[in-house]
Amino acid sequence: MIRYYFWLSLKSIKGNPWLSALMVLAIALGIGAFMTTYTVFHYMSGDPIPHKSDKLFTVQLDNWAPDSAWDDENNRPPPHLTYRDSHFLAESKEATYQTAFFSVIMAAQPENPDIKPLRAQGLVTYSDFFPMFEPKFLYGSAWTRRDDQQRNRVIVLSKDMNERVFGGENSVGKYFRLNDHEYKIVGVLDDFAPRPKYYDLVNSQDFGDTEDFYLPFTLNDFLKLRPAGNNSCWKPLPTASYEGYLESDCVWINMWVQLEDEDHKQQYQQFIDNYVIDQKNLGRFPRPLNNQITDVMDWLEVREVVTDDTHIQLWLSGAFLIVCLLNTVGLMLAKFLKKSGDVGVRRALGASRAQIFYQHLIESATLGIVGAILGLALAWLGLLMVRSFSPDIAVLTHLDFKLSLFAFAVAIITSLISGLYPTWRICQITPARQLKSQ
Amino acid sequence: MDIKPIFKTLIRNPVGLVLIATQVALTLAIIVNSLFIINQRLDNISVKSGIDEDNTLMISFSSLSDSYNMENAIANDLAFLKSLPGVNSAMATNSLPLSNSGWSSGVSSQSDYKGVEIGSAFYFADETLVDTLGVDLIAGRSFRSEEISYYYLSDELEPPVCIVSADLALTLFPDLNNPEEVVGKKIWYGGVENPKFAEVIGVINDIKAPWRGWSEPIFNRVIYVPHKPIFGKFSRYVVRAENGQLDNLVKNIQTELSNFDDQRVIRPPRPFSDIREVFVRNDKGMATTLTIVIVLLLLINALGIIGLVSFWVTQRTKQIGTRRALGATKFDILTYFLTENLIITCIGVIIGSILAMALNNWLVTAFSLSKLPMSYLLGSALLLILMGMIAVCAPAMRAMNVQPAVATRSV
Amino acid sequence: MLKMNGLSKVYRTHLVETHALREFSITVDEGEFVAVTGPSGSGKTTFLNIAGLLEEHTEGSYQLDGIELTGLSDRKRSALRNEKLGFIFQGFNLIPDLNLFDNVDVPLRYRGFSAKERKQRIETSLEQVGLASRMKHFPSELSGGQQQRVAIARALAGEPKLLLADEPTGNLDSNMARGVMELLESINANGTTIIMVTHDPELAARTRRNVHVIDGQVTDLRTVFNNDNVERTAETA
Predict the structure, then answer these.
(1) Separation of alpha carbons B279 and A206, rounded Å
(2) What does the pLDDT read at residue A392?
(3) Scanning every residue of chain A, which has its alpha carbon at the shortest distance from the alpha carbon of B369?
(4) Would you put residue A151 in left (φ > 0), alpha (ψ -120 to 50) or beta?
(5) What subunits make at least 3 CB pairs under 8 angstroms with B?
(6) Which parts of A186-339 fold into alpha helices (H)?
(7) A: neighbours with 3+ CB pairs under 8 Å?
(8) B338-358: per-residue pLDDT in tens?
(9) Which residue of B65, B193, B232 is in closest CB contact with A180?
(10) Residues of C121-133 as b/e, b for ≥16 C-beta within 10 angstroms?
(11) Which of A131, B192, C122, C230 could bridge across to C205 with cysteines, CB 3.0–4.6 Å?
(12) How many domains does chain C have?
């Protein structure tokens, strides 16, 4: 019977091409606009590491100035830590994994004289970075905690950097020259670009760049590198030197830990609170105790990764979809009521009210399917436009199978909802009156 | 024309009324707020940075080795850059307006920091400040070459003199009649524990900070300090081209500099137009998206009205014919449908206005947008009524042309 | 075949109450051909609508083919309508978007026959009315008489026990009307019961039984064969 209804709805669409086209257009535009903004929202708000986003926590300690909070409004501590605090936390091994890191810019000097020195962005971090954030390795593996302790000059390269300098071959065991010093390559990553780049939201554009290399944090006093990202100080350095910088209360280092469960989290909170209380006795941390550990998804929210603009656009396109829906209700009503006579005949010939109902519901759904296909095409165009405005999110936003399916579902549900009232109306038709009025 | 009978007919069969009016109401609510947002974004997009945007580019480099002499490199590079054909002027700096990265710090008009501490962007410049950036120095003087020194990252920032933006001058010294009077005053920095001051020697009009600043309106607050910055192995130049020479310079400058000294990595130059493009990108995107939404909404509404009214006309063909047979003129029929549509649209517009204000209220609290001016509401309402009238014209004309003979035809 | 007892139908609006039928009783036996006559507004169409399960009656009882119909669900009434009844209307009521084949197909679809059976029934019934060759044509391409023949084919395709005709010749010229009437008579001769509402005394005269409806009540005139009696009935009307 469904095939018969479907056949009838195709006939009805053909019999009323303009009205049908209008409805399809309304559904398609609504779906197109909604899916464009929804896709952007979906990718922005997605979980970048679903299987453990509730186990990874970023740590903040409030070491800010006594008389002015870092963030008056929400009473959040600075997003970054000082060198001495992050160094202490990373070395204390109280969590399953822990790492401090900051990004640096260095000059890479390939041995091949044909390749000019190139700018490379790197992360100075602990070996725990790799088991925590789980990048996949193309060759070799991460360096070890022992490498951290022994301050070995080892390096992990990104796939891209390995391709640029070594033509993509297995470079493990070779040396990589940065700012006139050589580092032994222990591993080469496969593509690694979590979106959003949750572990370094403050410094990178949320959906932007990736690292070219990773160096051990413990080499820092040898590297003497300043962060390429944010650095904030509330008082002058104790001495005007790099050592003074490391001793200072300037914040510039990301701190992440992996904690297994709620108990573990509470233990860790206790641990950092105790640490800060100890430091208070040394005259640091003048503000009230306000240390926070925040998991990945909460952190994305704190950093407002999904921008207000995205939210506004999503809401507006939702409202737009509702307008399109109302529009379709009106047109559908007109289309169905035009056919009142035929419905009367069908009722007289033995169609039950339920059968008439299904027939028209299927007609709505058919329009929905056509609208969905067109709407997907429009959403695709819409995303092209979005990409041209924000190349950052370009990598992210594509209509994959799941989203397309979702769009289809929304389109069909939309058209069914908008078909509901007209269908109900048409089912109320008293066949007798229709048959006589002709 | 008496609207009472039309109104009664509408009330008796209110489905069409409800559908179109709700549609119009929602549309109005969306359009008003979208127009408002668009207008704000257009303001953002057209922001003036305060420098000679058409002829400016920024280029940075990192040296390779620890032994590299940054001071010599900067001195040589600047001399070399100024000697290049098509270059007007060049200087070392940390950042440019609208570039989204730079320095900021709190400053005060008093040594004890009592009263106010104002966040301000810090830029580095040398004696060529006015020539290189083309800024509008409205009072005082620019830096002198003997005032310029190198600044290393670990150094305390201790400029003896500074040049400020007019807006910062008035914010720090609210008692001044005009920003020019700030010349000669002291600006304090470095915090309560270690207060130091710089004397203001000049005032620049309409210069912008690298970013807007959300919690604090830092956008118009700028301080220039007389230093050439050396950030470890990294430094940056701003170059002003002769009129019309920028494109050429952008093409060649990276090669020229690396040929001049190849012991470093030179990054591709960024013409100011690029910096600006990135700065306004989101605003542009938002404005475009919302414009498209508005156009589509009007289109959908118009098509919906055309579709539904066409159906009504078909449904009432016999009734229209009867009216015509009973002496109604074509004009009567036309005005009937126009009036009917006007009533529906107006009902929608009234509900929509309430909805629009509610939506705006929500946007204000949820996304800290500003309050909606009434003129937007009025303008959008008129726009929608006009849209309704245009849309109803086609089907109303069809109704107008129904022949009276239709009344007597039975099938 | 059909038995109505003390049936009444009241139309209510918020202003008035109209009694379309009151205390209406009639029995029609299997194989009868009944003509229902009466002035406009007398209730004959209401009778036909109730007989055809298009409307429900307000009071009384109605049995069709031994089944009591009072209080049945829409689904059951629709199924009965589909299986036991055939309709022919004054305005033909063909569906303009469908060709002849698909028009006749409509009731068979709701019956749930297989594609093969439907095809066979459609062809047979269109042959019966002499339009098998025009199966792919659309109603608008046919004359009024031909359209009514299609409507009859559509009514016959489901092999109904009772055929209900409402002014079947009302929109036709006399020549075509005669053809349609002859077709109905041959259908009746094959055993299908027919109830026909008509204004036309000439048509009514050709049937075995006339029922006259006035003010929602029935005057039954049983099996009158000679013309005198027909004229007498017409006079009483």
Answers:
(1) 15
(2) 65
(3) A308
(4) left
(5) A
(6) 220-223, 242-247, 262-281, 296-302, 308-338
(7) B, C
(8) 999 999 999 999 999 999 989
(9) B65
(10) bbbebbebbebbe
(11) C230
(12) 1
Interchain proximity A338–B314, CB inside 8 Å: yes
pLDDT given at position C234: 39
Q: Which structural domain range is residue A381 located in?
A: 2-45+307-437
Q: Does C79 contact A350 at a Cβ distance shorter than 8 Å?
A: yes
Inform me whether the C-beta atom of residue C24 falls under 8 Å from chain A C-beta atoms.
Answer: no
- In a domain? residue A50: no
CB atoms within 10 A of CB A15: 15
pLDDT at A204 over 70: no
| Residue B146 CB contacts under 8 Å (≥ 6 apart), including other chains | none
Q: Which of B154, B231, B367 sits opposite A240 (nearest CB)?
A: B154
Residue B229's nearest CA partner among B71, B77, B89, B93 is B93
Cα gap B172→A340, rounded to integer Å: 76
Report how far residue C177's alpha carbon sits from residue C170's, in angstroms, rounded to the nearest whole number: 8
Same domain assignment for residues A216 and A117: yes
> CA-nearest residue of chain A to C109?
A1
Mutation target vs A (from C93, C103, C108; most A CBs, 10 A cutoff): C93
Closest CA to A347 of A409, A433, A224, A221: A433
For residues A199-228, average pLDDT = 83
Chain C residues within 8 A of A345 when measuring between CB atoms: 93-95, 106
Whether C171 and chain A come into contact, CB under 8 Å, resolves to no
Kind plus residue range of the DSSP H or E element containing A90: helix A83-92
> Which region, left, alpha or beta, applies to residue C71 given φ > 0 means left and ψ of -120 to 50 means alpha?
left
Q: Indicate whether A199 and A284 sit together in one domain.
A: yes
What does the DSSP assignment read for B114-180?
A: -S-EEEEEEEE--TTHHHHH--EEEEE----GGG-EEEETTS----SEEEEEHHHHHHH-TT-SSGG
Q: Which domain holds residue C216?
A: 2-94+160-236
- pLDDT digits 0-9 by tens, C21-74: 888 889 999 999 999 998 888 888 889 889 998 888 888 999 998 888 888 888
Q: Is the overall model pTM greater than 0.90, yes or no?
A: no
Which B residues in the span 322-351 are in contact with A, Cβ-Cβ below 8 Å?
none
Instruction: Sort out which chain A residues have CB atoms less than 8 A from B296's CB and list them.
Output: 29, 33, 320
* Residue that terminates a domain, selected from A274, A302, A330: A302
Phi, psi for B102 (deg, rounded to 5): 170, -160
Low-confidence ranges of chain B (pLDDT < 50): 411
Q: Which residue of C has its CA nearest to A428?
A: C74
Number of independent structural domains in chain A? 2
DSSP class of residue B192? Answer: S
Residue B90 to residue B125: CA distance in whole angstroms: 10
Q: A interface toward C at CB cutoff 8 Å?
A: 1, 4, 11-12, 15, 341-342, 344-355, 430-432, 435-436, 438
Residue A364 shares a structural domain with residue A275: no
| Domain CATH for C232 | 3.40.50.300
Q: Assess contact for C104 and C150: CB atoms under 8 A.
A: yes
Looking at the fold, whether A281 and A428 belong to one and the same domain comes out as: no
Phi, psi of A103 (to 5 degrees): -100, 150
Looking at residue C232, what is its pLDDT?
A: 41
* Structure letter (DSSP) for residue C150: H
A389's tokens: 């405005």
| C106, C108, C163: best to mutate for the A interface, most A CBs within 10 A | C106
Chain B nearest CA to A5, separation (Å): 24
CA distances from A207 to A158, A312, A390, A400 (A): 17, 19, 10, 18
Question: Do the Cβ atoms of A358 and A17 come closer than 8 Å?
Answer: no
Q: What is the ipTM of this complex?
A: 0.87
Mutation target for A interface from C83, C95, C104: give the one with most A CBs within 10 A. C95
